[in-house]
Amino acid sequence: MSLPKISRLPSVKLLSSIHHQQLLLLRSVSPLSVPRRALYQGEYRRPGQTREKLSQPLKNFDFSKGLEGIKKHLALLKKEFSDRFVGPEGRPLSEHLLEQNRVVWEFRGPESLEQWTVSSDREIGGHSEAHLKLGKNNTTCFLYGTLNSTPPRDGETRYSGYCTLRSKQPLSSFDRKKHHDWTSFNTLHLRVRGDGRPWMINIATETYFSHQRDDIYNYFLYTRGGPYWQDVKIPFSKFFLTSRGRIQDTQHAIWLDKVNTVGFTLGDKADGPFQLEIDFIGVCKDYAHTEEFAYELHKRNPEV
Fold first, then answer.
1. In 10, 48, 130, 251, which residue has its Cα 20 to 30 A from 26's Cα atom?
2. Is 262 exposed, middle or buried (0-12, 13-18, 19+ CB in 10 A)?
């Protein structure tokens, strides 16, 4: 007995119609929006800090200013080439080898303040204030303000109260990064006059990876207050590595050939006015200090 043949033509038509309807439905639906943070790793945003607007106003371009900028950078480029034939940083090699002290920053006019930037927790909605001006006779730098540790009412920030003075990144011709080379020295030399508050000295160096951009070397500066100046010498071996305010388990010495900035931070949670006067900031070679690094180094392959 032969079984009746079942026609497959209606089922094929049914599947084709369903597939056609699915294609029409997919075309009508707009593509799903992927979060911007999933596409790339964004920069760190402090709690309470507002996000930058994507739409920025157009800048006015001036042809005469562009020519002045080109002339300026060409002059810097010419100086860079001529300094190479003279010696390191445009000084004779004999002077460079015999150098034991170097003044990096000294404040002798309004133009010296342009090399520094002042910031506080007002950037995240705090209430602290910090200002920078020249001292008496225009021979010192005077940092003053009011510290307030009250956190902003944004529902995110739990701690607040800091003020920072930081040097700008040195630039060469055509705004290329330039680093301080302090390999011939082993000590940071300061002449300051404070009000008895403890400060934190920050040294930022060039990094090879993007996730290390927040790495900073820190050490403490204890001012004793009063009308007398205080000469402070801090060996570079005493600076410890931190990232976003947290001390790192893996410590290593400062890369003295790629120093970018030096800064001062106040955050002792003592609300009230503060002041710090700086005469000069320099580096020196202390032959009595033979310590290479003051902290324990974690070796991956320890010697047996």
1. 10
2. buried
